[in-house]
Automatic annotation (TrEMBL):
GO molecular function: FMN binding; oxidoreductase activity
Keywords: Flavoprotein, FMN, Oxidoreductase, Signal
Classification of source organism: Eukaryota, Fungi, Dikarya, Ascomycota, Pezizomycotina
Source organism superkingdom: Eukaryota
Protein name per its UniProtKB record: FMN-dependent alpha-hydroxy acid dehydrogenase
Family: Belongs to the FMN-dependent alpha-hydroxy acid dehydrogenase family.
Cofactor(s) essential for the protein: FMN
């Protein structure tokens, strides 16, 4: 049961229900490099700020005196599944930086609520451990940083399939790492420090290519670092994926859905459809890649128009409240992904904090949908938002 309003919210908040206060308390709980790694973005962090500011350009114009019932239906159908709400975990690497339970905690809570969990290639927990904590039969997606090595790519995708990951999300905006000034100033690179590469460390093809198993009990620290670097290098650092190679993924992934994440132009969204992709996720990686890039919400509208219902359009970047989710849906997103809010929740006692954040957002969304005059998400459309410019 995942419908909440202020009377149905069924737990004592363990942290603030307000994003800004939640982030502030997470900051006190986290080591400074971990906090900055997540909070920061590229360059002067203009895009991190624009992602937020874009939400303020739109305001909700509610309708009243409609026959809205106490419980609003937030469900959607996506890739042959009925989901209780249009909310998906954004792929986020290195989650053990934020709490020792990392991906185990986040995947568990998304599983409990029946919402899709996207596992990052840069995960600090492997495919099978995350599948186990996520729970049998729950919707699991896998995000690929596309390795330049085809054997490794095949091996990752086969392992993902074997562990019940059913949607492939190919991130196409991070084939080279952005100019992340907070991390550069600290000299903080989690991947190289051996955190967040579990998938690469576990992979049998990676072991073959390296000539050793970095997880063996007699592996030296030097070998572990080498393996971490190998993973980092082969996850296509510096080499952009191209449309012409998509068949290599399709060959292994078959007819199951493949989405492109990191699309910011209407032209690319059209190309994605022409190249046979099954959806796009409008995203600028939370402002972590190009400083001064278009705000994600600003990119959404033209992409929704270009795609014109031919495939689902996901959205992420700057969602901090249920009202923000409402705006993204009203502007045509089929589903949204959450990044930083979940990490700040994770910092508060692991799964408890994640549950708190997710249920808070669901509750606020459900209340907002109703107060705007809607009984279900089919009624949430552009007429309910107005541009404030
Ligand atoms: C990310 N993001 C990301 N994306 C991806 O495709 N693979 C990854 O491994 C990561 N890792 C990652 C780590 C951290 C610490 C953050 C904050 C983000 C980007 C993520 O999926 C998403 O696009 C943004 O986080 C969305 O913006 P918000 O919700 O954080 O504002």
């Amino acid at each position: 049961e995942i419908y909440y309003n202020h009377t149905l919210y069924n737990q004592t908040p363990i942290a603030s229900t307000n994003y800004d206060r939640l982030e502030a308390s997470a900051k006190l709980l986290l080591p400074a490099p971990a906090y900055d790694y997540a909070a920061g973005g590229a360059g002067l962090e203009k895009t991190v700020a624009s992602n937020r500011a874009a939400f303020d350009k739109w305001q909700i114009a509610p309708r009243v005196m409609r026959p809205v019932q106490p419980r609003r239906d937030l469900s959607i159908t996506l890739f042959n599944r009925t989901l209780p709400a249009p909310i998906v975990m954004a792929p986020v690497g290195v989650q053990t930086l934020f709490h020792s339970t990392g991906e185990r905690a986040t995947s568990k809570v998304f599983g409990e609520l029946g919402l899709p969990y996207t596992l990052s290639t840069a995960s600090s927990t492997g495919f099978s451990d995350v599948a186990a904590s996520n729970g049998a039969g729950n919707p699991r997606w896998y995000q690929l940083y596309w390795p330049s090595d085809d054997d490794l790519t095949r091996s990752y995708l086969e392992t993902a399939k074997a562990n019940g990951y059913e949607v492939l999300v190919v991130t196409v905006d991070t084939w080279d790492l952005g100019w992340r000034t907070r991390d550069l100033d600290r000299g903080f690179f989690p991947f190289i420090e051996g955190v967040g590469v579990q998938i690469g460390l576990e992979d049998p093809v990676a072991h073959e290519k390296l000539g050793f198993n970095p997880l063996a009990s007699n592996a030296t620290m030097e070998q572990k670092q080498m393996a971490a670097l190998y993973h980092t290098i082969t996850t296509s650092r510096g080499i952009s994926p191209v449309w012409e190679n998509l068949w290599k993924l399709r060959e292994v992934w078959g007819d199951s859905p493949i989405l492109l994440k990191g699309v910011q132009s209407a032209e690319d969204a059209k190309l994605a459809s022409q190249w046979g992709l099954n959806g796009v996720i409008v995203s600028n990686h939370g402002g972590r890649q190009i400083d001064g890039a278009i705000a994600s919400l600003d990119a959404l509208t033209s992409i929704v128009e270009a795609v014109n219902g031919s495939m689902p359009v996901g959205f992420d970047g700057g969602i901090r409240s249920g009202a923000d989710i409402f705006k993204a849906l009203a502007l045509g997103a089929d589903f949204v992904q959450l990044g930083r809010p979940i990490l700040w929740g994770l910092a508060h006692e692991g799964e408890k904090g994640v549950r708190h954040v997710l249920k808070s957002l669901l509750a606020e969304l459900e209340i907002t949908v109703g107060l705007a005059g809607c009984s279900d998400l089919g009624q949430v459309n552009k007429d309910l938002v107005t541009a404030n410019i």
